[in-house]
Amino acid sequence: MNKVTLDVKGMSCAHCVKAVEGSVGALHGVDRVVVHLQEGKVDVEFNPEIVSLETIKEAIEDQGYEV
């Protein structure tokens, strides 16, 4: 498992948290995702043999946030 903390701009409310955690958490190979709203950070634990960091970033960007 890899662990990474991403800086994500544009998150401001509980809906943002749900959108990011839902979209990233649904990816095959992602074990855990935690949004830190006040800090603008997202912690992700994932298996790099199954899902790439680029795919995770794209999932966040698809929700309208900047990674």
UniProtKB/TrEMBL annotation:
The keyword Chaperone applies. This is Copper chaperone CopZ. InterPro entries: CopZ, Heavy-metal-associated_CS, HMA_Cu_ion-bd, HMA_dom, HMA_dom_sf. The keyword Chaperone applies. Residues 2-67 form the HMA domain. Gene3D superfamilies: 3.30.70.100. Keywords: Chaperone, Copper, Cytoplasm, Metal-binding. One of its GO terms (molecular function) is copper ion binding. It is found in: Cytoplasm. NCBIfam families: chaper_CopZ_Bs (NF033795), copper ion binding protein (TIGR00003). Its main location: cytoplasm. CDD domains: HMA (cd00371). One of its GO terms (cellular component) is cytoplasm. The lineage of its organism: Bacteria, Bacillati, Bacillota, Bacilli, Bacillales. PROSITE patterns: HMA_1, HMA_2.
